[in-house]
TrEMBL record:
Listed name of the protein: High affinity choline transporter 1
Positions in coiled-coil regions: none
Keywords: Glycoprotein, Ion transport, Membrane, Neurotransmitter biosynthesis, Sodium, Sodium transport, Symport, Transmembrane, Transmembrane helix, Transport
Family: Belongs to the sodium:solute symporter (SSF) (TC 2.A.21) family.
Length: 590
């Protein structure tokens, strides 16, 4: 077994740097916000709501720019038949942040929510909040698992040591500083994470470009040299599939707790918007070295390198093209510096998803659904326990599940198809209720699951127009795998159907109950004829109306007192089944 000492030293140095920054951030901000009346639990979740422009810009960018983003972008640019045309993540997530900043950041931050699920629980009740927690949790856990899985692949290129052990150590480090410092540690390590990725990749790119085995990437962009051009193209029959995937990234990238965690920690509503726009620019900038590395991989005669005669695509190692290029096309010290920096950054990018899942569970499930009288200290300990549990779960999945990427693809689809239309309804549509929410949830779930998921070998039971049977050849084993590809944009159609079902069934049940066509005793969810029903419907006005944004856009948002916030939100009339509350009721005192 060979141990590359330089690689090991580089990894240890970068890991120690990130661990030190995480602990320092926790120590520096240990009393932040608490003196102003903010609960310790909220301080962990939203960082005292005083994250400034510099740190905020970096941490918002790091929402999506992590291990999966840089590795995935390089992989798609490299893959024959795909190329830059199919590397949708940079533009998709950048536009997602722009739309989030334009339409969602201001209403969510102005009302002083603590998690993304708060408005759902207020308007639709604690049961619906629990249902919506399921796809949100799945997305966060599988995303963390996919990141750790990518980390294992990267580390296997650098040092021939036990990969399982290295992934466990990486996860423990991320879990440890998240436990200690909450959002502050996540935010400050994000700054280091992005510096590591930027520096590590940009130092490596010139050396890789100048390697004798690499042809001019300007030529290989349009001409076939070693494989098809890396610019790629979209075939006419794939237009709808491309559009469906793009909308999934652009709109499905909004309803994530990892994004709203950053929005809600901003020091003002306008800051939250500005940070979203800065992060959109950051997403595009951070994708450039990954695109170049993918292009370099597609322009390389691998016969002339230490990698071997077969290119990565013929060894089913396209997903590792970034660490392979750094390892085999750069001088050893440059290679290990780049790989060490990227590995540390990948490790660091798992922390925010674990914190997000923990925040939603501790607040929206444990406190608001089961233990409304729980003390702040109790909530803090529940958060710490769930950070460890969810971190361990993600690590176990990364090590034991071969289809972790398939699980993440499916769960991110469910976030898009189920949570995005619910978020639109709860913030921008007047009068939606729990019946509509349940109907939208069921419609979206059935239509999406019905389309199948090739990564999980989940066969479809709904064959949408234009479906075809494709085959995938595993180059190393020679096995041929057949699967159904849905070329119809069924994910976006499922999302639209979920939204329309929510609105239609909300108004239908409201009409049936209020007109007397259905007896009030059948309102078993207490969503229409409860004692506060008419008041709720009158209050649930469009957030886009400027008058509803109570707080000044330019002034910092007044700190929400933790006790009064918890008191407002744990009021039995708000969360019990005989009443709901509109999102605007949150700040009646303003």
């Amino acid at each position: 077994m060979t141990i590359h000492v330089e690689g090991l030293v580089a990894i240890v140095l970068f890991y120690v740097l990130i661990l030190f920054v995480g602990i320092w951030a926790a120590w520096k901000n240990k009393n932040s916000g608490v003196g102003d009346g903010l609960d310790r639990s909220e301080n962990i979740m939203v960082g005292g709501r005083d994250i400034g422009l510099f740190v905020g810009g970096f941490t918002m960018t790091a929402t999506w720019v992590g291990g999966g983003y840089i590795n995935g972008t390089a992989e798609y640019v490299y893959l024959p038949g795909f190329g830059l045309a199919w590397a949708q993540a940079p533009f998709g997530y950048a536009l997602s942040l722009v739309l989030g900043g334009l339409f969602f950041a201001k209403p969510m931050r102005s009302r002083g929510y603590v998690t993304m699920l708060d408005p759902f629980q207020q308007l639709y009740g604690k049961r619906m909040g629990g249902l919506l927690f399921i796809p949100a949790l799945m997305g966060e856990i599988f995303w963390s698992a996919a990141i750790l899985s990518a980390l294992g692949a990267t580390l296997s290129v650098i040092v021939d040591i036990n990969i399982n052990m290295s992934v466990v150590i990486s996860a423990l480090i991320a879990i440890f500083y998240t436990l200690v410092g909450g959002l502050y540690s996540v935010a400050y390590t994000d700054v280091v994470q992005l510096f590591c990725i930027f520096l590590g990749l940009w130092i490596s790119v010139p050396f890789a470009l100048s390697n004798p085995a690499v042809s001019d990437i300007g030529v290989t962009a349009k001409k076939t040299i070693y494989q098809s051009p890396w610019l790629g193209k979209i075939e006419p029959e794939d237009n709808w599939l491309w559009a469906d995937n793009f909308f999934l990234l652009m709109l499905g990238g909004i309803p994530w707790q990892v994004y709203f965690q950053r929005v809600l920690s901003a020091s003002s509503a306008t800051y939250a918007q500005v940070l979203s726009f800065l992060a959109a620019f950051g997403c595009l900038v951070m994708a450039v070295p990954s695109v170049l590395i993918g292009a370099i991989g597609a322009s390389t005669d691998w016969n002339q390198t230490s990698y071997g005669s077969l290119p990565p695509k013929d060894k089913d190692e396209s997903d590792m093209i970034l660490p392979i290029v750094l390892q085999h096309l750069c001088p050893p010290y440059i290679s290990f510096f780049g790989l060490g920096a990227v590995s540390a950054a990948v490790m660091s990018s798992a922390d925010s998803s674990i914190l997000s899942a923990s925040s939603m569970f501790a607040r929206n499930i444990y406190q608001l659904a089961f233990r409304q009288s729980a003390s702040d200290r109790e909530i803090v300990w529940v958060m710490r326990l769930t950070i460890f549990v969810f971190g361990a779960l993600a690590t176990a999945m990364a090590l034991l599940t071969g289809s972790v990427y398939g699980l993440w693809y499916l769960s991110s689809d469910l976030v898009y198809v189920i949570i995005f239309p619910q978020l639109l309804s709860v913030l921008f549509v007047k009068g939606t209720n729990t019946y509509g929410s349940v109907a939208g949830y069921i419609f979206g779930l059935l239509l999406r699951i019905g389309g199948g998921e090739p990564y999980l070998k989940l066969p479809p039971f709904i064959y949408y127009p234009g479906w075809v049977t494709q085959e995938k050849v595993h180059h190393l084993t020679g096995d041929v795998e057949h699967f159904v590809q849905q070329r119809f944009p069924f994910k976006s159609v499922s999302m639209a159907a979920s939204f329309l079902a929510n609105v239609f069934f909300s108004y239908l049940t409201k009409y049936l109950f209020e007109s007397g066509m259905l007896s009030h005793k059948y309102d078993f969810l207490d969503a229409v004829v409860s004692k506060h029903s008419k008041e709720i419907m009158d209050k649930a006005t469009l957030v886009s109306n400027h008058d509803n944004i109570i707080l000044s856009e330019m002034a910092p948002v007044r700190q929400v007192l933790g006790a009064s916030l918890a008191g407002t939100f744990t009021n039995t009339e708000v969360l019990s089944d005989d009443g709901a509350s509109s999102p605007e009721a949150f700040h009646n005192e303003d």
